[in-house]
Amino acid sequence: MNKINIKYLAKELNLAISTVSRALRDSHEISAATKAKVFALAKELNYEPNPNASGLRGQKTKMIAVVIPDMVNDFFSLVISGIEKITQSKGYHILLYFTHGDHELEVSFIKTLANGRVDGVLLSMSSENNNRHHLGELEKKGIPLVMFDRVCDTLQHVVKVTTDNYESAVIATRHLIDAGCKKIAYLQVHKNISVGKIRMKGYLDALQQHSSQASPLVLESANDNEETFQFLQQMLIKEKPDGIFASIEKLAVICYRVCEKIRLKIPEDIKVISFSNLQTASLLNPSLTTITQPAFDIGETAANELFQLINRKDKSVAVERNVVLKSRLIKGRSTARN
Amino acid sequence: MNKINIKYLAKELNLAISTVSRALRDSHEISAATKAKVFALAKELNYEPNPNASGLRGQKTKMIAVVIPDMVNDFFSLVISGIEKITQSKGYHILLYFTHGDHELEVSFIKTLANGRVDGVLLSMSSENNNRHHLGELEKKGIPLVMFDRVCDTLQHVVKVTTDNYESAVIATRHLIDAGCKKIAYLQVHKNISVGKIRMKGYLDALQQHSSQASPLVLESANDNEETFQFLQQMLIKEKPDGIFASIEKLAVICYRVCEKIRLKIPEDIKVISFSNLQTASLLNPSLTTITQPAFDIGETAANELFQLINRKDKSVAVERNVVLKSRLIKGRSTARN
DNA sequence: CGAATTCACGGAAACGTTTCCGTAAATATT
DNA sequence: AATATTTACGGAAACGTTTCCGTGAATTCG
């Protein structure tokens, strides 16, 4: 359990510490012969530079933070896979944080991250979108930030990677209308998630422009799944919608369960469409029509944007940019015409 | 963008660096009055200690690495959630690595990790289980290791967290036998994953002891999903099994697709059971009977075991321990009696 | 051939913490 | 009252790396 560091290599080779360091970094100031000797010994002893020392000296950590609500659905798993593809190719490391939808946790994570622990941050915000003061701390410390999916719509001077939520919601709603739905309900999560707001606007606009439906029908989900189940059941019985547009897949799943319980047949009695990255959507009973976000692409894109920020020369000017990726409508039997 | 570090705090308060450091760590050597002043300023300026400096000095990083094959199924997502619960409560950070089933990548990850980047490693091995020399490097450097799920069965002196794969496989096979299956096929991944081997042994033993089936029927999946689809289709047509035991959920999903294509009715014509953590298993058509591993528990347990190793006093003696958690059989319609 | 330049390397400072050691003043002990 | 101990803090070393600066020797140039 001997400490193998540059000092040890230097002593072993009768060289100065600085020489060994330069040799390892392939500096032109070092002769080929010396480099060869250093490389050989480093390889033999399995030498790896101490990241804390490098980080401390160079103010570079080769690490980025990924801060997401959680991983209960396939979306964020895919995003992370996309991020990992990029970080892996750049020799970077991923630090992973879950906010569990808790804004306070998010603030505390960002605070600890704002001190040289990472070279950059990828963030998908926690539910409560009220306060964004903590993000200024990152900018103040010169740590690049890229937001994705759940972005902060009121925050300027930041790079955001999103999908065409509005257009997709319009398409989804029109898909239900075209399938013959006369009364379409929208299942929404918390009101203060920007993604949810934008999707709902798409639903509302499409309804107004392309349907004769008298008024929109919106159900906001509860914190607890069982509670949501009850609410949805009441709504389906009372309002009798013939189309359901779920803003997230969890709500579609709950909807399937409610329909099974109260003997509503999908798609005969009621049609269901949902934003979803569920890999088994096509195997559900019936197969679920989905609006599927390019989750892996989002991860790749966000990571690439972040590395552009990390590597740029002039860090004084703030960068603002909105990258919007397209979602896809994948038809299943849940919205088949009667 | 001023650097806020201990030196700055010290100058601002007319104190020595050492005094400020001790105050921040709530040392008994510092008077209450001084502590209060230091805390106040630190809070006001949002001071956070530089992790590289702390890590370099104290040889503690407050980080652990999680090395897993990938995140294409819900299992590892849940494991990570379990791990995160523990790290979060201990103020630790998670570094995440995907090996993508590539042994070389695993070796290279472990190598970089063996140099003070992390305080401990949680590992679920990549597919190829042949070489385990790289893990010795961790032990040599005194970095604790806990393996989970895909463990190395030939490696001694290490903590392993697994599930009762053998017993579960016996139960799964017996479940099919009890449901009336006379010819049960086992769908297996790569031969050299210990988990797969153990599960297959359970299948073989259960078959021998409780079934009149002449000989076992095993199909090893190809690397490519479509290829596996073709193989399985051929096998179902040629051998006509009436029961399928899938060792991982991906194979069960492929099996569903094949059955749909060649018009085999589940469970009337053929019954299907699978190891799976699919959250939508009960919503599939038909609902899938699963052996479900306590993935979240595995994460929690592995993380707790790791922290025990990290915090123990005497690091000279190697610890060996096998924690085995129980899986659950969750009945669906895919194995209903005819 | 003397001067300027390049080459190849050594010494030392710096990154921000933590902790060992030292020390005046204050308090306690005999 | 003289000594011992505690209190509260300062100075400096150490963690391992990178890089600035310096310097003899070798090479190039006029």
From TrEMBL, chains A, B:
What residue stretch is flagged as signal peptide? none
Give the superkingdom in one word: Bacteria
Keywords carried by this UniProt record: DNA-binding, Transcription, Transcription regulation
Return the Pfam families for the record. LacI (PF00356), Peripla_BP_1 (PF00532)
Instruction: Tell whether Transcription is among the UniProt keywords.
Output: yes
Fetch the PANTHER family from UniProt: HTH-TYPE TRANSCRIPTIONAL REGULATOR GALS, LACI-RELATED TRANSCRIPTIONAL REPRESSOR
* Protein name as catalogued: LacI family transcriptional regulator
What species does this protein belong to?
Answer: Chitinophaga barathri
Q: What is the lineage of its organism?
A: Bacteria, Pseudomonadati, Bacteroidota, Chitinophagia, Chitinophagales
